[in-house]
Design goal:
Elements (H helix, E strand, L loop, with lengths): L27 E6 L17 H14 L6 E5 L8 H11 L6 E4 L6 H7 L14 E3 L5 E4 L10 E2 L2 H13 L5 E4 L10 H4 L3 E2 L1 H10 L3 E6 L6 E5 L2 E5 L6 E2 L11 E2 L4 E8 L3 E8 L10
Parallel strand pairs: 1-2, 2-3, 5-7, 6-8, 7-9, 9-11
Antiparallel strand pairs: 1-14, 4-5, 10-11, 12-13, 14-15
Length: 290
């Protein structure tokens, strides 16, 4: 694997390229949004947070990007109570996005209601787990369903790991990003780690066999977090709405805070690999020339 390999180790090989070379197919920009928690019209999440308005701010910010991302991925907790009304509201808010949108469930979602709401999306599986491969760009993107109905934590069971192993075996030489709602790593925020991912050790074994995996992109934790996990950079996207308060004492209650909402922009170029930016959404003065 060429360019800068896992967690910065340089290797040479077929993925190397020229940033300003002629092959534009080797470049790619994707926006990641997560933990949208959209409610029914007129309702505030937890009686306090206007998640719909905050998502509209995020959509407006994505529409301002130049160049625009080729696609948007939404890494779960799309709505708050998983009702058809909430999913319809979500679709209306996201409708201005002109680029392809790919969604997976989080613990606040319902697979069947999500599937019904996005029935017009050709990638959406008609039954079973909602995971799929996005094949068209310079990066291969494997979207994973870690949802357990009725549970806050997630799981990669044997069936899900077998699906992932088969997909990774198909394209061993193409740089690949994994996207799932629940992060596989612990964070030191005890009350969040208690709601983690069952089956993470199986994912770790797959990473050893598949060095084409460039990144693991997650949600769930409502904060920007990064760690090098089994040789791969794993990261968490902040929420487009409220964030989880950073409290690392074991007995600290789990709370949310209205820190700036945001999303992430991941840019792929062969010689720099995947570079990620966290962008806050909202109204800020500037930009001003230096």
């Amino acid at each position: 694997m060429g360019g800068f390999g896992k967690c910065g180790a340089h290797q040479s090989g077929p993925f190397e390229g020229d940033l300003y070379g002629h092959d534009a197919s080797k470049k790619m920009i994707l926006a990641q949004i997560s933990d949208l928690h959209v409610t029914a019209p007129g309702r505030l999440c937890m009686g306090r947070v206007d998640t719909a308005a905050l998502l509209r701010d995020c959509v407006a910010r994505i529409l301002e990007l130049d160049p625009a991302p080729e696609l948007v991925i939404a890494s779960g907790d799309l709505v708050d109570l998983a009702t058809p009304e909430e999913y319809a509201h979500l679709r209306e808010i996201l409708s201005p996005l002109p680029m392809p949108l790919y969604v997976i469930p989080g613990n606040h979602d319902n697979r069947e209601n999500l599937r019904a709401a996005f029935v017009d999306h050709a990638y959406m599986p008609k039954n079973g787990f909602i995971h799929f491969a996005v094949e068209d760009g310079a990066l291969r993107i494997l979207m994973l369903d870690s949802h357990i109905p009725g549970e806050d934590g997630g799981q990669l069971c044997d069936a899900r790991l077998a699906w992932l192993a088969a997909r990774l075996d198909e394209e061993p030489d193409k740089p690949t990003v994994l996207v799932m709602h629940h992060p596989p790593f612990t964070t030191g925020v005890a009350n969040l780690d208690d709601l983690g991912l069952v089956g993470a050790e199986g994912l770790a074994r797959l990473l050893v066999r598949h060095p084409q995996v460039e990144r693991i992109l997650c949600g769930h934790l409502h904060r920007s977090i990064q760690v090098c996990w089994h040789g791969v950079l794993a990261s968490v996207c902040p929420s487009t709405a409220h964030q989880v308060a950073l409290r690392m004492k074991r007995d600290a209650p789990l709370c949310y805070v209205m820190e700036p909402p945001g999303f992430q922009l991941h840019t792929w170029r062969p010689e720099t690999r995947l570079v990620s930016h966290t962008l806050p959404t909202g109204c800020f003065s500037g930009p001003y020339p230096f």
